[in-house]
Specification:
Strand content of chain A: 15-25%
Organism (chains A, B): Tepidiforma thermophila (strain KCTC 52669 / CGMCC 1.13589 / G233)
CATH architecture of the largest domain in chain A: 3-Layer(aba) Sandwich
Family (chains A, B): Belongs to the CinA family.
Pfam families (chains A, B): CinA, CinA_KH, MoCF_biosynth
Protein name (chains A, B): CinA-like protein
Number of strands of chain A: 17
Oligomer: homodimer
Largest interface: A-B, 79 and 77 residues
Helix content of chain A: 25-40%
CATH superfamily of the largest domain in chain A: MoaB/Mog-like domain
C-alpha cells in the first residue's frame, strides 16, 4: 500500500525546529510492507493544509500527519481533515470528560480553547495519548485512512508504537521488509565495504554500509511474503558476516554502545567510576541512559574546576607540572576516581570543549584515560575541529571505545 | 515571492538520515522576504521527482532542491529538471575539465559515471562547489527559478551562503519578515494563548504560541519593506507582552535556559554545585553546555548508588527513614553538596527514571531540591508518564526552573 507523511507546523517551515517525527515514522513503515512515496511539511494555514491533505488523500492509501493538534487557533489539523472529508466536528462527551479530568488532576482549570482537543468527526475515532491532552485521530473513509498524531515527539512515538503500528500490522502486513543491522567498530567504512563485498551478490538480499558516530553499520535487508521467509534469507548472511568481522561487531539493530558497555560490565560483574572535566557529566549521563546501569556505574564526579580535581585526589604536582589539560592529568583522574570510589575501573576525561582555546591549547583537544583493575591506566588523545556539543559527544564515544578495549583485554598488550 | 524546498533522496524517505538541509534553508528565507509555502521529500525515482518538481514549478516562483546530484544511477535531480523543462543535458567542457582536475588532484582516476556532474542544460548555469565534485544548478526559465544544491550539508551550506543567498538578495530583497520570540515559563500553552489574545488583532502583526520543553514560546512576526519598519511594528507588541507576562518571560529568540541560568549566576557572582541521582549527570552536562560555565559551576556529583550519597554527606538516617527517592533525601542532597563543595547554591535530584518502578515508586517520580545561601532548601516533586530519556530531560528543566525561582527570590516567600 502507498503512504505519505505530512508534518504540520509553521515552526518547521521557519526552520525553528527540525522535523524528526517523519524520519521516526519512515523508518518503521518498510517492515509493515508499506511504501512511503512522499513526505511533506506544511505551515499552520488552513487552505494549504487542506490542499496538501486532499492531494495526499487522492494519491495515497494511508496518510499520516503529525502536529497541529494543540489547543490554539493555529492548530488546524482537525479542521483540515474535517474540511477534506466534508464532515462537521463535534465535541465528544467522553473525550471532554477525560480532558477536563487531565487538567483537574494537575490542579488547574481547563482553558475553554482546549475543548478543540475533545473534537471528533463521524469518520474519526480517537487514538489514546496518555502523555498529553491531544488524542490522535484514526480517520477511515472510502478505503482511505488518515492517521493524525501530535507533534510532540514523546507523545507521537508512544502513540505510534502502542496504538498505530499494531493496528497497521493487523490490517496491512503485505510483503514484508526485514532488516538486520550489525554494528562494527574500529574499521573504516571503505574496508568494511571491501570485507563484506563477497556477500553482496547473495540473491534476495540487500546489504548497505553506513558510517555512524558509534562505528560502521552493516544493514542486511530481505523482502518476502512472511517475516519467517525474510529471516531465512538473512540468517546465513548474518552468520557469514559474523565470521568475517568477529568481535569488531559490538551490537545489532537498536543496540546502543552504552548498552553494550553495560552488558560487558554486567558479564564481568565489574564496577566503574568516572571523573569528567570538559564533558561536564555527559559521560555519566550517557552511561546511565541504560536501565539498570546502577549495577555497575557507582559514581561520577564532574570536577569542572582545578581545585576540585585536586580535592578528589589528583596530585597537585601532576597538574602543576603537565597542566590541567594533559595526558598525565587524564591518567591521574582515572586512577584517582577508581581509588577514591573503590571501583574496578576508572575513567578520566580532560580537554578543551571550546569554542575558545585554553592556555594555548586548541579547542577539541581531549585526553581520555581508563584505569584498569591492575592499577594501570591507558590514555587516548583526540583532536577534533568541531563545535562544543560535538566535541563533548565524540569525547564520550572515545571513552566508551577505550573502556571496551580494556574490558576485552585489548589494552594490556599495548599501553597507549 | 513564493518558494518551496524539495529534498531528494530515498535514504531520507527511509528515515536513515534526517533532512536538516530544509530547516537550514527555511531559516534563511524569511529575512530575504521570501515566503516558504511547502517543503517536501521525494525518493530517488525519476517519475515522482518529475511530478514533484512540476507541481512546485507551477505553483512557486522559486524551487530549491537538495540532493540527487551525485554520480550514481539513482542521483536523478539533473534528469528530473531537464525533463520538466523539456531540455537536453550536455557535457560542459569547462565543468568536465574542473571535474577531472579534482580527481587528478587527489591522485585517482575519475570513474566515468562521474561525467554526469559536468552536465548542464540550456537554462542552467553552474553554481560553484569547492567542497565536492557536484556543482549546483541555477535554472531560470519563464520567470521561474530552480536552484539545485548537493545533499551533503557542508557542501550545501557553503553553496547557499556564498553563492545562492547573495544572488537572491541582489534580486528579490522584497518584503522582509522579522520575528521576535519571547520565552515564558510556568504557564500552560492554553493560558498563555488567552493572556496574549488581546494583542492578536494588532494590525500588521502575527502572533503564535509554541509549547517547548523550556516553556511556552510566543513568536511575534511582522512583514514590512525594511527591517526598521518591521521592528517598529514589533516593539510595541513586545512591550505589551512583557507587561502582561512580567518575569514569566525568561528569554528571547536564541536564548537557552541554561544560558539564562548562567547569566543570572554571573550577575550575582554566585557559585553552584549539584548532586544528581536519576538524572545521572545530565544536569551538570546541560549547565556546562554554556561556554564559560566554569565561572559559576564548581562541581557535580553523580551519586548513582545509595552508599555514594552517604559518602558525600547525605545522612544515612534520612535515607533510612524516608527512602532514597523522597523529598527529604533530595533536600539533604542539595544541602550536602552545597556544604561539601562550599558553594552558594546546591541542587539535589533523586527519582525513578524508569522504565520500571523502584521500591514501589512509579517511574517518572522525581524530587528536585535547591539549597540557598541562607542554608534553606526547597523541593519540587514532579510525576511524568514518559520515557526514561524524557524523564531525565524534564527533571533537568525542573531543576533549572527551581534554581531560577531561588535566584529571583521567589522561593524564600513560600518554602515548597
Amino acid at each position: 500500500m502507498k503512504a505519505e507523511i505530512i508534518a504540520i507546523g509553521t515552526e518547521i517551515l521557519l526552520g525553528e525546529i527540525v522535523d524528526t517525527n517523519s524520519a521516526f515514522i519512515a523508518q518503521r513503515l518498510p517492515e509493515l510492507g508499506i511504501d512511503l512515496l512522499y513526505t511533506s511539511v506544511v505551515g499552520d494555514n488552513l487552505g494549504r493544509i487542506v490542499e496538501t491533505l486532499e492531494r495526499a488523500w487522492n494519491r495515497s492509501d494511508l496518510v499520516i500527519t503529525t502536529g497541529g493538534l494543540g489547543p490554539t487557533d493555529d492548530d488546524l489539523t482537525r479542521e483540515g481533515v474535517a474540511r477534506v472529508l466534508g464532515e462537521e466536528p463535534y465535541v465528544d462527551p467522553a473525550l471532554e470528560q477525560r480532558l477536563r479530568a487531565w487538567f483537574a488532576g494537575r490542579g488547574y482549570p481547563m482553558p475553554e480553547s482546549n475543548i478543540k482537543q475533545a473534537w471528533l468527526i463521524p469518520s474519526a475515532r480517537p487514538i489514546e495519548n496518555p502523555r498529553g491532552t491531544a488524542p490522535g485521530w484514526w480517520v477511515e473513509h472510502d478505503g482511505h485512512i488518515i492517521v493524525c498524531m501530535p507533534g510532540v515527539p514523546s507523545e507521537m512515538e508512544r502513540m505510534w508504537t502502542k496504538e498505530v503500528q499494531p493496528e497497521l500490522e493487523r490490517r496491512f502486513a503485505g510483503e514484508v521488509l526485514v532488516t538486520r543491522t550489525l554494528k562494527t567498530v574500529g574499521i573504516g567504512e571503505g574496508t568494511v565495504d571491501e570485507m563484506a563485498r563477497p556477500l553482496y551478490a547473495t540473491p534476495g538480499i540487500g546489504i548497505g554500509t553506513y558510517a555512524r558516530a558509534d562505528g560502521v553499520h552493516l544493514r542486511i535487508g530481505a523482502k518476502a511474503r512472511t517475516r519467517e521467509e525474510a529471516w531465512a534469507r538473512i540468517r546465513p548472511v548474518e552468520e557469514a558476516l559474523e565470521r568475517i568481522f568477529g568481535d569488531a561487531i559490538w551490537g545489532r539493530d537498536d543496540d546502543t554502545f552504552e548498552g553494550h558497555i553495560a552488558d560487558l560490565m554486567h558479564e564481568r560483574r565489574a564496577t566503574l567510576a568516572v571523573m569528567e572535566s570538559c564533558t561536564g557529566g555527559l559521560l555519566s549521563s550517557t552511561l546511565t541512559d541504560v536501565p539498570g546501569a546502577s549495577s555497575y556505574f557507582v559514581a561520577g564526579l564532574v570536577t569542572y574546576q582545578t581545585e576540585q580535581k585536586i580535592a578528589f585526589g589528583v596530585p597537585a604536582e601532576t597538574i602543576a607540572e603537565h597542566g590541567v589539560v594533559s595526558q598525565e592529568t587524564a591518567r591521574a583522574m582515572a586512577l584517582a576516581v577508581r581509588e577514591r570510589i573503590g571501583t574496578d575501573y576508572g575513567i578520566g576525561i580532560t580537554g578543551v570543549a571550546g569554542p575558545d582555546p585554553q592556555d594555548g591549547i586548541p579547542p577539541g583537544t581531549v585526553h581520555v584515560a581508563v584505569a584498569t583493575p591492575d592499577g594501570e591506566a591507558y590514555v587516548i588523545t583526540t583532536a577534533m575541529n568541531q563545535g562544543r556539543a560535538a566535541v563533548k559527544r565524540r569525547a564520550v564515544t572515545t571513552a566508551m571505545l577505550l573502556l571496551r578495549r580494556a574490558l576485552l583485554g585489548q589494552l594490556s598488550a599495548r599501553p597507549a
